[in-house]
């Protein structure tokens, strides 16, 4: 090539078009990037034992190739007889693969009873296009094993006249439970079909096969989105699917379902055939919604079916029928066995994991009697497998089924099971009719029928309950043997709280009305605490109200005819006779921040040695002193929690007064703290304290220490409620006062310096109350706190030439210490809190004194509490005293 030619190639590069192969490829072949195989009659690439007796075919090369068959399939691996294994392997990526039927196919041979009778393997495929209304995009059959290790970008049909019966993906077997049946493994697939050109069936697994697909994009189909039929011992496992859109207008009848599963053998074992497990199973994860027209949403006609909502907040099932619909209702969820095989049991067992919103379509869980054997319908509502992080950083789990106008029916031989870890059903306008068996741990949520106003705003008209009753014909214990749970919530989560109802009378009426919606015919002894303590009926907590009651069961004869229920239908009806307005987590968080101030103030009630060291070693000297200390305190009891790390600087001056052993002085201290509150809340606090003291001692070892203090304290906090629904910020300041008297006597061995020193102390104090308002409109009135703390202790130690050391054990008791607060919103009713700080606890302290020189002394002490409600996890004091001449 000349220099000019090379330059022109650089400036105007020529795009490689590759080589076009127009003849059928039946052996090994190496291609280059951009090559195409285009034949009039397919397959374009064929591996067939009957044609060339070659056990394997390898298609290799670089880049990718396109394959087209104008008629018939494009790629085929067909095993008839003669050699195992029989393999077709693509070591090159495929671009667009086009054919009129069974575009990519793999077939084994059951007579050889091995899945290696036909093995087909691919890497990546950009697109598969079906040009006729029959066949499939990619199909595996007759005991073969087909694997796509990479991704199929999309599977499309160009046949868009509206009557396609083609499948996007197909895996079929023959249903013989002893054969190693067809196996299909696909790593991932993009969209299957489109809104303009739908397949008849998106994904099919039929007759005892194993089909496993990692992920699928959106599916558009006319009759079935995902179909697992005659599963028997086979299973269909799809890790995640986007939206499933199924159906077409003017169908005249229901023609299919978005997700369909049917196994003649249910989930039993065939003992007549060597104990083969007959676990016909369908497992699907959904990332998108389910939308159908003239087709059911989810349908199970036998076997095990598990559908998991993978999307945070759950998925929506919208199953609708148009005016041309002439047969039975459209079901969003239908679980009813319809087997015809020889097996004695074929229960239809469906589990919904996570949250599902039934926008349209009914729910039916029903049984079938076949040859005198009852095949039950079973619906298991379970929490999702994975947690997710909420916007505020907390962890949530999806576990709610939401109904609107749908009917919900469980017939007399069928079962509704709620997850033992808890599951919610938001009821709709229709009744929840469980004529069969209920078991597990469930909460039924009734909506309010009027407009929800902002929290703390009274409703302009009385709210009532929107929705039908919950009818539970028979309640049993859970599968684990524990009591079943039936709790009741009024108002949807996130839309309604107790603060929306400011009147206790209205709250009582609403919660009683909600309890009255629960009817049970038999088995009340299996619910909660039985007839007299069945469960909870409540509204979700607001900032300052949390309405709840324990409901019990009463005979239904007193309300005969209500909700269309008579005494002859159900024996028991839920009701309440008492109502509680519990302290909310916002209230307990605010109270916890106030407790920090109380405890930090209480900790300033020190002993003489803690404040001044062993002052008796220099009784006639005036001087100044300074002390620092750091500590951590913690309270975790009931619904209150805090952990406070605080530091303090204190300094003072004192001098002898007269000749009778008294020393008088004064001190000033500043304490600063940082606190952790529950649910990620926090607080900052400080105290400024002025003190005067007088200390007396004599040569016989007696001493008295008197202290009076005035304190100004301030607290600023952020409180987060348990459900992270409310964040409250506030600050307040208080004055506090205390007086303390301590008496002790030292008994010392003059020869070796060992001593014992019993002590007794009493401290009286008061923290004044405060009134203030938080950032979100809560008015708080904190009452004053009176405190009376007694201490009795004994110190053991040794006096040295230039210092001393000791260990002290103390027992303390708070005789008073009650804190009460009132919380209210504007124009709302109040709620009160009460905390009792009365407690008995112990403390252990280790410390000592040391003389550095004639005028300076140092002292230190370490302390912690035990058996205390409010723990001192550690406190370290270090001080120095300097004497003046």
In short:
With 885 residues, the protein is mostly beta strands. It contains five helices and 67 strands.
Helix and strand topology:
Blueprint: H1 3-11, E1 20-21, E2 29-31, E3 36-41, E4 45-48, H2 49-52, E5 56-61, E6 64-71, E7 75-78, E8 87-90, E9 93-99, E10 104-107, E11 119-122, E12 125-130, E13 136-141, E14 145-157, E15 167-172, E16 183-192, E17 199-206, E18 210-216, E19 219-229, E20 235-241, E21 244-247, E22 257-261, E23 267-270, E24 276-279, E25 281-286, E26 290-293, E27 296-300, E28 303-309, E29 315-320, E30 331-336, E31 348-353, E32 356-360, E33 362-366, E34 368-370, E35 373-375, E36 377-382, E37 388-389, E38 395-396, E39 400-402, E40 408-410, E41 415-426, E42 432-448, E43 465-466, E44 470-475, E45 485-490, H3 504-515, E46 518-522, E47 535-539, E48 547-555, E49 572-575, E50 580-581, H4 585-602, H5 608-612, E51 623-637, E52 640-657, E53 662-677, E54 682-697, E55 702-720, E56 727-745, E57 747-748, E58 754-767, E59 770-773, E60 779-782, E61 785-799, E62 803-814, E63 818-824, E64 831-836, E65 839-851, E66 856-866, E67 870-883
Parallel strand pairs: 1-3, 2-5, 3-6, 4-7, 5-8, 6-9, 7-10, 8-11, 9-12, 10-13, 11-14, 12-14, 13-15, 14-16, 15-17, 16-18, 17-19, 18-20, 19-21, 19-22, 20-25, 21-26, 22-27, 25-28, 26-29, 27-30, 28-31, 29-32, 30-33, 31-36, 32-39, 33-40, 36-41, 39-41, 40-42, 41-42, 42-44, 42-45, 44-46, 45-47
Antiparallel strand pairs: 23-24, 34-35, 37-38, 42-43, 46-49, 47-48, 48-49, 48-50, 51-52, 51-67, 52-53, 53-54, 54-55, 55-56, 56-58, 57-58, 58-61, 59-60, 60-63, 61-62, 62-65, 63-64, 65-66, 66-67
């Amino acid at each position: 090539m000349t220099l000019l030619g090379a330059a022109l190639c650089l400036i105007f590069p020529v795009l490689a078009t590759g080589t076009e192969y127009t003849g059928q490829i039946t052996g090994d072949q190496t291609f280059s990037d951009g090559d195409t195989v285009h034949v009039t009659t397919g397959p374009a690439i064929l591996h067939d034992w009957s044609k060339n007796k070659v056990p394997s075919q390898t298609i290799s090369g670089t880049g990718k190739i396109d394959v087209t068959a104008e008629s018939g399939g494009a790629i085929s691996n067909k095993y008839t007889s003669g050699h195992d294994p029989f393999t077709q392997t693509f070591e090159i990526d495929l671009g667009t693969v086009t054919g009129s039927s069974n575009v990519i196919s793999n077939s084994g041979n059951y007579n050889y009873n091995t899945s290696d009778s036909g093995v087909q393997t691919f890497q990546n495929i950009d697109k598969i296009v079906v040009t006729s209304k029959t066949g499939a995009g990619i199909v595996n059959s007759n005991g073969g094993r087909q694997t796509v290790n990479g991704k199929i970008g999309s599977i499309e049909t160009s046949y868009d006249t509206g009557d396609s019966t083609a499948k996007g993906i197909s895996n079929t077997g023959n249903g013989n439970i002893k054969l190693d049946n067809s196996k299909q493994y696909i790593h991932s697939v993009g969209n299957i079909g489109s809104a303009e050109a739908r397949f008849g069936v998106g994904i099919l697994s039929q007759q005892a096969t194993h089909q496993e697909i990692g992920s699928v994009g959106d599916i558009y189909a006319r009759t079935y989105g995902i179909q697992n039929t005659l599963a028997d011992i086979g299973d269909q496992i799809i890790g995640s699917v986007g939206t499933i859109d199924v159906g077409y207008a003017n169908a005249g009848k229901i023609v299919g379902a978005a997700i369909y599963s049917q196994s003649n053998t249910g989930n039993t074992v065939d003992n007549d055939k060597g104990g083969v497990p007959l676990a016909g199973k369908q497992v699907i994860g959904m990332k998108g919604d389910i939308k159908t027209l003239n087709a059911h949403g989810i349908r199970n006609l036998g076997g095990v079916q598990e559908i998991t909502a993978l999307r945070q907040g759950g998925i929506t099932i919208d199953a609708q029928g148009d005016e041309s619909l002439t047969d039975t209702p459209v079901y969003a969820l239908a679980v009813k066995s319809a087997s015809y095989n020889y097996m004695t049991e074929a229960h239809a067992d469906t589990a919904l994991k996570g949250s599902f919103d039934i926008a349209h379509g009914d729910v039916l869980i029903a049984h079938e009697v076949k040859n005198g054997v009852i095949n039950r319908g079973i619906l298991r509502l379970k929490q999702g497998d994975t947690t997710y992080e909420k916007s505020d950083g907390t962890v949530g789990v999806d576990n709610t089924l939401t109904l609107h106008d749908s009917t919900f029916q469980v017939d007399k031989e069928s079962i509704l099971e709620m997850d033992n870890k808890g599951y919610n059903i938001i009821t709709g306008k229709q009744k929840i009719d469980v004529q069969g068996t209920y078991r597990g741990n469930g909460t039924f949520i009734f909506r309010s029928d009027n407009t929800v106003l902002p929290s703390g705003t009274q409703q302009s008209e009385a709210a009532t309950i929107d929705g039908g009753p919950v009818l539970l014909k028979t309640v049993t214990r859970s599968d684990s043997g524990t009591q079943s749970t039936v709790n009741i919530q009024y108002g949807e989560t996130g839309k309604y709280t107790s603060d929306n109802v400011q009147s206790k009378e209205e709250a009582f009426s609403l919660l009683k009305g909600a309890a009255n919606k629960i009817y049970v015919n038999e088995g009340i002894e299996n619910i909660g605490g039985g007839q007299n303590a069945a469960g909870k009926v409540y509204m979700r907590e607001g900032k300052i109200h949390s309405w709840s009651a324990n409901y019990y069961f009463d005979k239904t004869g007193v309300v005969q005819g209500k909700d269309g229920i008579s005494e002859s239908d159900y024996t028991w009806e839920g009701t309440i006779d008492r109502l509680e307005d519990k302290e909310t987590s916002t209230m307990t968080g605010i109270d916890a921040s106030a407790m920090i101030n109380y405890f930090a103030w209480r900790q300033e009630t020190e002993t003489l040695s803690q404040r001044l060291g062993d002052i008796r070693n220099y009784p006639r000297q005036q001087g100044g002193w300074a002390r620092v200390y750091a500590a951590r305190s913690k309270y975790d009891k009931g619904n209150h929690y805090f952990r406070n790390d605080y530091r303090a600087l204190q300094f003072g001056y004192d001098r002898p007064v007269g000749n009778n052993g008294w020393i008088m002085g004064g001190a000033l201290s500043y304490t600063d703290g940082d606190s952790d509150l529950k649910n990620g809340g926090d607080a900052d606090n400080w105290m400024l304290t002025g003190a005067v003291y007088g200390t007396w001692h004599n040569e016989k070892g007696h001493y008295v220490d008197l202290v009076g203090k005035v304190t100004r304290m301030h607290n600023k906090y952020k409180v987060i409620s348990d459900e992270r629904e409310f964040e409250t910020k506030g600050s307040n300041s208080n004055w506090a006062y205390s007086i303390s008297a301590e008496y002790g006597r030292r008994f010392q061995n003059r020869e070796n310096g060992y001593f014992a020193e019993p002590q007794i102390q009493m401290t009286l104090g008061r923290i004044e109350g405060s009134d203030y308002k938080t950032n979100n409109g809560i008015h708080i009135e904190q009452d004053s706190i009176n405190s009376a703390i007694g201490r009795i202790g004994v110190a053991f130690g040794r006096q040295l030439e230039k210092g001393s050391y000791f260990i002290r054990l103390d027992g303390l008791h708070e005789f008073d210490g009650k804190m009460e607060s009132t919380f209210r919103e504007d124009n709302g009713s109040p709620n009160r809190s009460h905390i009792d700080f009365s407690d008995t606890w112990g403390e252990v302290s280790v410390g000592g004194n040391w003389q550095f020189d004639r005028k300076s002394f140092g002292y230190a002490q370490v302390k912690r509490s035990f058996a205390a409600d409010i723990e001192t996890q550690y406190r370290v004091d270090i001080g120095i005293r300097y004497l003046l001449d």
